[in-house]
Amino acid sequence: MQTIAVTGGSGKLGVWVVEELVRQGFRVVSLDEKTSDKLKCKQIKVNLSDFGQVVGAINGADAVIHLAAIPAPLGYTNDYIFANNVSSTFHVLEAASILGIKKVVTGSSESAYGFCWAPKPFSPNYVPVNEKHPALPQECYGLSKIVGEQTGEMFHRRTGMQIFSLRFSLILTPKEYSLSSISKPENYKRILWSYIDIRDAVQACIASLRSEAGGHRTLNITSDDTLSDRPTERLLAEFYPEITDQRRTFSGREALVSNELAKNILEWKPEFSWEQIKE
Q1: What is the dihedral of CA 154, 60, 211, 224, to 10 degrees?
Q2: Pairwise CA distance, residues 244 & 100, whole Å
Q3: Is the Cβ–Cβ distance between 17 and 51 less than 8 Å?
Q4: Which of 38, 169, 209, 259 stands the most exposed, by the fewest C-beta atoms within 10 Å?
Q5: Which of these, 58, 55, 59, 31, lies nearest to 45 by C-alpha position?
Q6: Cα dist. 99→62, 124, 164 in Å?
Q7: Which residue range or ranges hold the NAD-dependent epimerase/dehydratase domain (predicted)?
Q8: Number of C-alpha atoms within 13 angstroms, CB side, residue 53?
Q9: Cβ neighbours of residue 39 under 8 Å, at least 6 residues apart?
């Protein structure tokens, strides 16, 4: 039985990841600043800004899923958000390298592309948006995710550690789907109507643990469809007519952010859609 350390185990995604890991027979240790009565595993209170605490907490783990972070440029000062997210990722990877841990999965974000939180809104250079699209953040959160990904690249070069940086789109639980919002496409324009069901996000994390792909990989983790009841071609025509580099025709409500690389490398695919709440 492998031991998996999950940072942010008490958080929104962390609770679901821990639950599924336990269900699949892994030994799990949750590392967070708080404990949760929802978790059925060992829990350690850890301040990830303290490197010594991180080393002590993940010692004995076979792999790490690093999900702890401030999840948006909201509620804290810019310098605190950036410093928290960047230092925690560095500390986790540095500790893993010292302890000889060979696999780390880190939670990145589609905010790395810059569209979502940009003070000066801008459009994608092309669609569908894939991992080769330039990362152009204008704020602290997106920048922290880019630095986190580059930190993963550095540790792979230095140690050969397998690291996945998963660019999650908007993560939604089944209870968070809202037909009233989905019928208002202007609500999700800035995120290109991109989302991922939390159950599919969990499976992407576990698929990354099981993968033997090696290297450092940055992957979009998004649904196959959009968070809108309108056809994708109509969304583009109404909200992004300035995009001239459209590299394929979109069928129905097909997603504008590509998950093809994740499907190929992880042998994973999303199983859930907001449409299921209508059934």
Answers
A1: -90
A2: 48
A3: no
A4: 38
A5: 31
A6: 10, 40, 18
A7: 4-212
A8: 12
A9: 9, 10, 15, 18, 19, 30
Query: How do the pLDDT tens digits run along the chain, 279 residues long?
Result: 699 999 999 999 999 999 999 999 999 999 999 999 999 999 999 999 999 999 999 999 999 999 999 999 999 999 999 999 999 999 999 999 999 999 999 999 999 999 999 999 999 999 999 999 999 999 999 999 999 999 999 999 999 999 999 999 999 999 999 877 899 999 999 999 999 999 999 999 999 999 999 999 999 999 999 999 999 999 999 999 999 999 999 999 999 999 999 999 999 999 999 988 764
CATH number, domain 3-117+129-173+196-225+258-271: 3.40.50.720
Residue whose pair of structure tokens reads 């990904």 in the numeric block:
149
Distance CA 40, CA 229 (A): 38
